[in-house]
């Protein structure tokens, strides 16, 4: 790091000053159930929104308060196949953040006429063409003859033991949109009791707090469009640097459902040197890839071999902490030039993915090798979201 006012003043920052951003739970951009494993969220975000991992922080910078400009010198190892001229100032931007097309709304009220067993949930009747429900946050109802609001729990929740017999739960079902001109999907809700039998709540009107998208409208925003903030914002202007990605929908039927169920058995397969371990790993990763490109994942196909071994590492720098036994994971990859960029980001995500599966009082340590048994990259040992050293 250098000071433009004093070219001879150079300061060396510690190696841990560069911190990748986007891996922690508070840095997630896609809503994910609280009971779901955070490692799967990382996989999902990587395959559907990899740009969120293009950020990094520079820490441990101590400068005088009147400093306005600083210069960073980043040394590149010989392992990189691209030239230094490939990296310019255009590759770096300050004050950027990922944006996701999601917003909260209160749905249109539903009249329970008991003529049907399920009811279509509409977020905005006037703007239905450009408003689609992404997820249901909660379902509430006005109890007849009272101003009190009652909240209904989803059937697949953890609140069954605390409720009385005869309580109603809601169940949702997503189907292709009933209006072909809109595209996207519709959501229906129905009510059941603890035994999954139809059970309408004692009310006539209910509504839901939902998270919504604008269907395919966001993809029509051109590059460099100026966005209007809904609330006060310290930024002078908000500009869309890239065109928003297309909206994708999960498969509502077919083999993908069986593959999701099979993940329950895949979770019981531990990392090992056995060929089945690599096969199970590939299957899990492909579950969270884009359904249209899951058969052509160059970064995943580049991984040729997985080996694991037990290692012992120092836990922290304090002498009293002692040593911890963990798992060293060695991935051997085919480092072709056309997959090298994606391979580094992909294995960086895998580093956090494996660490989140580490058992208590243990850790994982990931290393990437090429076919000549040469080390390309070794990550610091990690336990959960925390580096071990």
Topology of this protein?
Elements: E1 2-3, E2 6-10, E3 18-21, H1 38-48, E4 55-58, E5 103-106, E6 110-111, E7 119-121, E8 132-142, E9 149-154, E10 169-176, E11 185-192, E12 205-213, E13 225-227, E14 238-240, H2 255-266, H3 275-287, H4 298-301, E15 303-314, E16 323-333, H5 337-356, E17 364-369, E18 375-378, E19 382-383, E20 386-387
Parallel strand pairs: 9-10, 16-17
Antiparallel strand pairs: 1-2, 3-4, 5-12, 6-12, 7-11, 8-9, 8-12, 10-11, 13-14, 15-16, 17-18, 19-20
Low-pLDDT regions:
none
Q: What characterizes the major β-sheet? A: 8 strands, mixed
Rg over CA atoms: 25 Å
Mean pLDDT: 83
Rough outline = globular
Number of domains: 3
Describe this structure in words.
The chain is an alpha+beta fold and 389 residues long. The chain has three domains: 2-91, no CATH class; 103-213, no CATH class; 255-387, no CATH class. It is built from five helices and 20 strands. Strands 5, 6, 7, 8, 9, 10, 11 and 12 form an eight-stranded mixed β-sheet that branches. Strand 8 and strand 9 (149-154) form a beta hairpin. Helix 2 (255-266) packs across helix 3 (275-287). The two termini are 24 Å apart. The mean pLDDT is 83.
Throw out a few tags for this protein:
389 residues; alpha+beta; 3 domains; 4-stranded mixed beta sheet; 5 helices; Type VI secretion protein; T6SS_TssF
Describe the structure concisely.
This protein is of the alpha+beta class. It has helices spanning 38-48, 255-266, 275-287, 298-301, 337-356; strands spanning 2-3, 6-10, 18-21, 55-58, 103-106, 110-111, 119-121, 132-142, 149-154, 169-176, 185-192, 205-213, 225-227, 238-240, 303-314, 323-333, 364-369, 375-378, 382-383, 386-387.
């Amino acid at each position: 790091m250098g000071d433009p006012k004093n070219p001879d003043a150079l300061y060396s920052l510690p190696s841990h000053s560069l911190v990748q951003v986007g891996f922690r739970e508070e840095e997630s951009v896609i809503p994910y159930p609280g009971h779901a494993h955070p490692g799967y969220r990382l996989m999902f975000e990587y395959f559907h929104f990899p740009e969120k991992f293009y950020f990094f922080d520079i820490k441990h910078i101590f400068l005088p308060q009147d400093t306005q400009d600083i210069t960073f010198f980043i040394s590149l190892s010989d392992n990189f196949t691209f030239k230094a001229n490939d990296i310019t100032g255009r590759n770096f931007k300050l004050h950027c953040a990922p944006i996701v097309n999601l917003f909260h709304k209160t749905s249109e009220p539903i009249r329970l006429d008991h003529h049907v067993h399920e009811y279509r949930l509409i977020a905005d009747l006037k703007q239905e063409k450009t408003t689609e429900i992404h997820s249901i946050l909660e379902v509430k109802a006005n109890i007849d003859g009272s101003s009190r609001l009652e909240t209904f729990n989803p059937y697949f929740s953890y609140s069954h033991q605390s409720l009385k017999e005869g309580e109603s739960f809601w169940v949702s079902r997503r189907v292709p949109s009933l209006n072909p001109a809109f595209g996207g999907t519709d959501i229906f809700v129905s009510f059941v009791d603890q035994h999954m039998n139809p059970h309408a709540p004692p009310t006539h009107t209910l509504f839901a707090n939902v998270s919504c998208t604008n269907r395919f409208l966001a993809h029509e925003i051109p590059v460099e469009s100026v966005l209007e903030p809904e609330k006060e914002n310290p930024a002078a202007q908000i500009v869309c640097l890239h065109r928003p990605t297309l909206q994708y929908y999960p498969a509502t039927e077919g083999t993908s459902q069986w593959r999701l169920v099979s993940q329950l058995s895949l979770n019981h397969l531990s990392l090992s040197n056995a060929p089945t371990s690599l096969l199970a790993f590939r299957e899990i990763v492909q579950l969270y890839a884009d359904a249209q490109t899951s058969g052509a994942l160059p970064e995943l196909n580049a991984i040729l071999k997985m080996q694991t071994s037990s290692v012992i590492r120092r836990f922290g720098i304090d002498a009293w902490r002692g040593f911890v036994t963990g798992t060293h994971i060695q991935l051997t990859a085919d480092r072709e030039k056309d997959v090298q960029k994606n391979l580094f980001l992909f294995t960086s995500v895998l580093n956090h993915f494996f660490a989140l599966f580490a058992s208590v009082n243990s850790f994982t340590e990931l290393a990437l090798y090429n076919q000549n048994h040469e080390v390309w990259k070794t990550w610091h040992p990690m336990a959960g979201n925390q580096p071990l050293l």
